[in-house]
TrEMBL record:
The active site is at 91 (proton donor), 91, 255 (proton acceptor). PROSITE patterns: DAP_EPIMERASE. It comes from Bifidobacterium pullorum subsp. saeculare. The keyword Transferase does not apply. It holds the Pfam family DAP_epimerase. Keywords: Amino-acid biosynthesis, Cytoplasm, Isomerase, Lysine biosynthesis. It comes from the Bacteria. This is Diaminopimelate epimerase.
Length: 308
C-alpha cells in the first residue's frame, strides 16, 4: 500500500475525509487505495481522500501550477481525490479540514495558512469557536468565480417529476445551481420571480439525491449539482437551505465550493451577496463580491487510525 499506516478521519460540516501527511512526497495513493479507504463498509469511509504534501510531490501539476504555489507562499498542497479515486480541482470544506490537520501538526504558526490546490492558492484564517458556525472555524478565501448565463441549463432527477432551471458556476471546479423554492413573499426581483416560476421540483428536504441529477445541456467535465431554497431575504443578507449531489461520490452533507456557487447564483437573482446557508452538516456563511468569494465554517478532527 502506498499510503502510510496512520491516517486521520476528519470532517467539515459533515463533508468527511481521510487525511494523511506525506512530508517526503513519496506516498501518492492509487485510485484503488482511495476507493478502499473511502468505502464506508470495507474501509475508513469518506467523501474523499486528502494527501497533505509539498507541491513538487504532486505528479499531475504543471510547472505553472507549481510556480503559482511558490509565488503564493504555499509550502503545502492539498492533493484531493474523490471517493471514486478521481482527481478533484478543489474542495472548499476540504481546505478547512486540511488547515486544522496542519495546525495540529505544527505546520503553520499564527492565524493564517496558505494552502496550494489544483484551483490555486487559498488563504485560510483561523477564527476559533464562533457561533452559530461551531468550533474550530476557518474563513477561507476561495478566490475568483465565473458564472454562466442565468438559468441556461435544465436540471432533473430520474424518478422525480419535474425540473428546474440551473445556472453554471465555475469555482475552480464545475457546479450547476438550481433554485427550487422560496419562503412566502420572497420574490422581489424579476430574475428570482422568473426562476421560481420555472421551477417544478419538490422542496429541498424532499429531493431524492441518492440518484444522480441530469443536467441539460450536459457539461463535458460533469459537475456538482446544488438545490437551494431561499428561507429569508433582507437588504444586506439572506438565509437559505441547500443540498448537493457531488460528482464522484453522490450526495454529501456539505460542499464548500457548492455553497459558494450557490451564493453566487443567489446574488445574481437577488442582488444580495451575504448568505447563511444551512446544509445537512451545519450552517456556513458565504460572502460574495465581484472579485471573489469567502467561506466561513467549522472543521473537526475525529480520530487517528492505524491501518492493519
Amino acid at each position: 500500500m502506498s499510503i502510510p499506516q496512520r491516517v486521520t478521519k476528519a470532517h467539515a460540516t459533515g463533508n468527511d475525509f481521510v487525511l494523511y501527511l506525506d512530508a517526503a512526497g513519496d506516498r501518492e495513493p492509487t485510485a484503488a487505495e482511495v476507493r478502499f479507504l473511502c468505502d464506508r463498509h470495507f474501509g475508513v469511509g469518506g467523501d474523499g481522500l486528502i494527501r497533505l504534501t509539498r507541491p513538487d510531490a504532486v505528479a499531475d501539476l504543471t510547472a505553472a501550477q507549481r510556480e503559482a504555489c511558490a509565488q503564493g507562499g504555499a509550502e503545502w498542497f492539498m492533493d484531493y481525490r474523490n471517493a471514486d479515486g478521481s482527481l478533484a480541482e478543489m474542495c472548499g470544506n476540504g481546505t478547512r479540514a486540511t488547515a486544522l490537520f496542519a495546525r495540529r501538526a505544527g505546520l503553520f504558526a499564527g492565524g493564517t495558512f496558505r494552502l496550494g490546490t489544483r484551483a490555486g492558492v487559498k488563504e485560510l484564517a483561523y477564527l476559533g469557536d464562533l457561533e452559530p458556525y461551531g468550533r474550530d472555524v476557518f474563513r477561507v478565501d476561495i478566490g475568483a468565480w465565473r458564472m454562466g448565463e442565468r438559468g441556461a441549463h435544465r436540471v432533473s432527477i430520474p424518478g422525480t417529476e419535474g425540473s428546474a432551471p440551473g445556472t453554471f458556476v465555475d469555482m475552480g471546479n464545475p457546479h450547476v445551481v438550481a433554485i427550487v423554492g422560496a419562503a412566502a413573499g420572497i420574490d422581489r426581483t424579476p430574475a428570482l420571480r422568473e426562476a421560481l416560476a420555472c421551477a417544478g421540483l419538490p422542496d429541498v428536504p424532499d429531493l431524492d439525491l441518492a440518484v444522480k441529477p441530469v443536467v441539460s445541456p450536459a457539461i463535458p467535465t460533469d459537475q456538482n449539482v446544488e438545490f437551494v431554497r431561499i428561507d429569508a431575504l433582507g437588504e444586506d443578507a439572506g438565509a437559505a437551505t441547500m443540498r448537493v449531489n457531488e460528482r464522484g461520490c453522490g450526495e454529501t452533507l456539505s460542499c464548500g465550493t457548492g455553497l459558494c456557487a450557490t451564493a453566487v447564483t443567489l446574488r445574481a437573482h437577488t442582488g444580495v451577496g451575504v448568505w447563511d446557508i444551512t446544509v445537512r452538516g451545519g450552517v456556513l456563511r458565504v460572502e460574495v463580491s465581484d472579485g471573489d468569494v469567502r467561506l466561513t465554517g467549522s472543521a473537526t478532527l475525529v480520530a487517528d487510525l492505524d491501518l492493519l
